[in-house]
Amino acid sequence: MPRLKKSTHPGTKRQNQPWQLQTAKAQFSELFRRARTEGPQVVTRQGKEQVVVLRAEQFAQLIKRGRQPKSLVRFFAESPLATVPLDLSRDVDSGREIKL
Prior knowledge:
The chain is 34% helix and 13% strand.
């Protein structure tokens, strides 16, 4: 990940610039606001990305995706349509006539 230039104005951050842990703690209200308005905010510790602060709605979507069935077979087995009777019978195919 390329390094981002530091802002020239103290206390201001550009969008998508990681927050150092100390700054995130000192300016938590701003971190919170930006997570709501600008999207996920990365917090670093000792120069390494450690956590991401994001809107609760985004987190809920991630959790929902994580609860999806592990396989297609399981998905269909757990489907509410699994109890609907299906008629899988077919008409006998007698073929077709072909002119030779």
